[in-house]
Amino acid sequence: MPKEKRGILNIVKPKTPILFTYSGDIWSSDSDDSDYKEESTSRSSQLCTVKPVTQLPQQNRNARKRKVDSRIVKKTCANTVKEISHNQWDSWGLTIPPEILLKLFKCVIADEGALPFLPRASRVCRLWHQVATDNSMWQYIDLSYGWIKKKSAVLTWLCQHRLQQVRELNLTGWKSEVNASLPDIWKHCLLLRSINLSYCKYSSEALQAIAEHCHNLCDLDLSYYESDGKFLASFKSLLKKSGKQFLCLKLAGCGVNLTSVLTAIIMFCPKLQLLDISNPKPQAGYSSINIDQFQENCTKLKIFRAANTRLSHTRSQVQSDWIGFTHLEEFSIAGKSHNDHGEFMFRFLRGSSNLNLLDIRQCSFSMDSVLFLPSHIISHLYISRCNIKELCLEQIIATWAKSLVHLDISWNVLSEDCMKQNLCTLAAEGSLLVNLNLAGTAVDSTSVQTVLRGCSALCSLNLTSCRSLPRGIKRDFNGKKELGELHMILYRSATSHVIS
Q1: Residue ranges for the chain with pLDDT beneath 70
Q2: Most CB within 10 Å of its CB: which of 188, 327, 395, 480?
Q3: Model's pTM, two decimal places?
Q4: 474-478 contacts: CB < 8 A, separation 24 or more?
Q5: Among candidates 173, 224, 167, which has minimal Cα distance to 195?
């Protein structure tokens, strides 16, 4: 007897194909087409004419989807714009009063400057253009950064259309382009009070024209100028005509005889408050200054800057009736040019009881003369790379410990004990110290911890090349966060040493 063929689950496989069921019932096969109904010919023809859909690559499908989405978005936005009338768009700008908008623009200018804000704001709408192009908005203009092309034609157009009410104008770095536009500046900018022509090239005639047109000019910056050989004569003529109105003169990088320049300033500028003659060129030579006459004529001087300038006094005797510069607040003669045992500084600062800043970095004279200064409120003291003795430094720190805000004693040869004692004095209660430069000194970790604990206002500490400190902290620390991390590093280091 032939063996029966078995299928799934060991069930005898029937001869006719059936569907499998759990109940064991036998379903009829689809081969029975008794219930088949033929469809219409039109429907069958339509099915035959349908083209097969091919599968697109993934990249093409994504691109096609993005294209469809962008069309939908554009169509939606277009319909939305059509619903809003043109008057509704204009009403937004008209609802802001020009006076309010003017005040808002002035707040922005006070924080960020007039450029490039005003040219960009003038392109928003008609109201913004009207306010941004108002001459009262163009009073403090800085053209040195490069927001506007440094061309004489551009500067001439600005003078004619925008700068009629300008008070301060900065043209640093315009070089020879400024020479052709200076006549337009003097002609149209009649309210000009301050102009910066540093790193510019101009003729002596353009410099003389200041006295004829700019009757309100009181701040003139001619630092690192490039002029012809007639500069000294033109400058003297300018001071002779308009010297009484000048309050600030900046002549850094002077290339002419500095003694003649100082003599003219002392004679014709009685209201002078700021004088900067720093970093003169070698051809300026060694300059002498009559301190007696200077203090007698320029009694309102507040700031004197003469870094890297070789100066000496002309009189050898000291007058007992000297009043001195009673309003002087800043005195800077940093550089290696002074080796007169501090006599020039002492004679210059006699009577300057309001002195706040003293910069004598790299001066080779004895620092003992600093102890005889009349000011007791010095807040900024820079005595880096000076020939200073330990006892003298202790007396200086003890005198101004409570008023010091910025102190620079870097790169001085001092012992660890001297540094520890001075820093303990600085870290006393009520310290106002914000910036401290100890680079290249023999300060140790204990002294640094003392400063960090005592000086609560400290924001900057320079420990570069301090040989007594461990590796990893010989750098400049800025901000409360970095100073806090430094304090934790020193604390953990001290704790590990105690445990070991």
Answers
A1: 1-94, 227-228, 315-322, 337-341, 496-500
A2: 188
A3: 0.77
A4: 476/439
A5: 167
